[in-house]
Design brief:
The chain is mostly beta strands. The protein has helices at about 5-15, 320-335, 350-360; strands at about 45-50, 55-60, 70-75, 80, 85-90, 95, 100-105, 110-120, 120-130, 135, 140-150, 160, 170, 180-185, 195, 200, 210-220, 225-230, 235-240, 245-250, 255, 260-270, 275-285, 290-295, 305, 375. Strands 1, 2, 3, 6, 7, 11 and 16 form a 7-stranded mixed beta sheet that branches. The chain starts with a helix and ends with a strand.
């Protein structure tokens, strides 16, 4: 037996006095206080959150066999509810689903709710605001919570299937919305009233914990990788790739020039998940360097990277006569303002100290960096 929308409106108006024994269809009567002020302007989403017995959030994409999870159906993307109904089939070959342990009306005194579980194979949830227009709800409002125990390891999306008919699964944000509503299928055959998109996700991707990595880009002073902790005098690019070689992110360093000299050149790579990465560092006059980065459950600070910064003839990854000739032009000028990228020792001048650094690498030609692991 099914109820029509109109019958559900009457049924809920007496505070949902009886337990629902069959799917309910949507609601009919237009409230005189309505007006469709928000319908269609928001992006409602119903999603599930799973917790194990320790209260730890679990990944709904990979539920473990035999583990009982507390599954909360939540609502986001809207600020008000007038009428809400969900009809969801349960595949008992995938999981056992128990009786609800909490429900929306526990937290919202102006919302009446009812819920039925038909032979553990179907969930029917209904909610109605007792206000004349609607009831305000918070983001991520809990609709109901119930235990779910997978028979075998599975994605929760294989356990639940919502009825996509707007007569059975729908959301109205004002009592005056009548049969116009948010629905899972906005082109449902035979439904002649306006519908707007609503989403349901039984196994949303969990946000991955990420950790910032920060440090300095320094001028390398010897071929063995030593540095005097002076900033590379130009912006550098750091490209981060995962173990499969896929680019994860790319950031620019912050080379600070106070007008008289470079005072720092720092970088931050935000929110990296645990893992091993390669970081490739390039710059206007830098010999490209690739280092290894290992993130393991914590942010990394002072992850400093020294660079050979005097590759002024950028056609080659080696320091040769072309580089020294370019440097000598800057050296003859002596002007930091005109040649800021040639001040390798950070004193605001282009002088003999900078020339000695260039000659260190000119003597070896091709620069081979030592291995560097940041962790």
């Amino acid at each position: 037996m099914s109820f029509s929308k109109k019958l559900l409106a009457v049924f809920l108006s007496v505070c949902l006095a009886a337990c629902l024994s069959a799917p309910l269809t949507a609601l009919a009567a237009k409230d005189e206080n309505g007006g469709n002020q928000t319908l269609g302007t928001e992006t409602p989403k119903i999603y599930c959150e799973y917790q194990n017995s320790l209260g730890e959030v679990a990944d709904g994409n990979a539920l473990e066999a035999g583990t009982e999870y507390s599954c909360s159906f939540k609502l986001s993307g809207v600020t008000a509810v007038a009428r809400l109904q969900l009809v969801i089939a349960v595949d008992v070959s995938k999981a056992a689903v128990g009786t609800f342990t909490s429900i929306m009306s526990d937290s919202y005194t102006t919302i009446n709710t009812d819920m039925s579980d038909v032979s553990n194979t179907k969930i029917v949830f209904a909610a109605v605001s007792t206000n004349s227009v609607c009831s305000g709800v918070e983001e991520d409002a809990v609709l109901f919570t119930l235990p779910v125990t997978p028979v075998s390891a599975c994605d929760a999306a294989s356990i639940f299937t919502a009825d996509e008919s707007p007569d059975y699964t729908f959301l109205e944000t004002e009592h005056g919305d009548s049969k116009e509503c948010y629905a899972l299928n906005t082109s449902y055959p035979g439904y002649e009233y306006a519908t707007f998109p609503m989403e349901i996700d039984y196994s949303p991707v969990l946000p991955v914990a990420g950790y910032d990595v920060s440090g300095n880009i320094y001028v390398m002073t010897t071929v063995d990788g030593s540095t005097a902790s002076k900033p590379v005098p130009y912006t550098c690019t750091l490209t981060v790739a995962d173990a499969e070689g896929r680019t994860v992110t790319e950031v620019q360093s912050d080379a600070v020039n106070d007008g008289t000299k470079f005072t720092s050149n720092t970088y931050t790579i935000p929110a990296l998940a645990d893992g091993t990465y390669t970081v490739t560092v390039t710059g206007e006059f830098a010999v490209t360097r690739t280092v290894t980065l290992v993130v393991n459950g914590a942010a990394i600070e002072n992850a400093d990277i020294p660079l050979c910064a005097c590759n002024y003839n950028t056609a080659k990854e080696a320091i040769n006569a072309s580089d020294t000739r370019a440097f000598n032009i800057a050296y003859s000028s002596g002007s930091f303002t005109s040649y800021p990228a040639y001040d390798l020792n950070g004193d605001g001048k282009i002088n003999a100290t900078d020339a000695r650094l260039v000659n260190v690498f000119f003597a070896v030609g091709t620069v081979t960096y030592p291995d560097l692991v940041l962790q």
